[in-house]
Design brief:
- This protein has 122 residues and is α+β, with helices and mostly antiparallel strands.
- It has two domains: 61 residues, no CATH class; 59 residues, no CATH class.
- The protein contains five helices and six strands, in the order E-E-H-H-H-E-E-H-E-E-H.
- A three-stranded antiparallel sheet has the order 1-2-3.
- A hairpin with a 6-residue loop joins strand 1 and strand 2.
- Helix 4 crosses helix 5.
- The radius of gyration is 16 Å and the shape is flat.
């Protein structure tokens, strides 16, 4: 992830009877690379080749979600304030569908947002 400059990846699964993939979680660079500070320190003390992504990722039901529609009214500063005090590095942007399911639209990075705000006011 570091070599490609990617700091978060959605983890998906495709059901056998479907062509659609379901988001089941999010794994971040910190989940994998910072075992001493990660909630997964015990897992990462094992041989890395044996640790599964599913054990490190934040599962869907624990993700912090932002509704796509709310982005039209939120400022960048308000979005950054959503991160403060949470310890989160990324928020998943979703769009609710008529059938009650959610469609992943994107990921907001705290670091990228803070960097862009800092450049704007530098």
């Amino acid at each position: 992830m570091r070599r490609l400059g990617i700091h978060a990846l959605l983890v998906t699964r495709r059901e056998r009877s479907s062509i659609d993939e379901q988001v089941i979680g999010l794994v971040t660079h910190n989940d994998i690379s910072l075992p001493g500070r990660s909630r997964n320190a015990r897992l990462m003390s094992q041989e890395p080749a044996r640790v599964r992504v599913g054990a490190l990722m934040t599962p869907w039901d624990k993700l912090s979600l932002v509704h796509y529609e709310s982005l039209a009214s939120l400022t960048a500063l308000e979005m950054l304030q959503m991160f403060q005090g949470t310890g989160l590095t990324h928020l998943l942007v979703i769009n609710m569908q008529d059938d009650g399911s959610a469609l992943a639209r994107g990921i907001i990075s705290r670091g990228a947002l803070a960097g862009r705000l800092a450049m704007r006011f530098a």
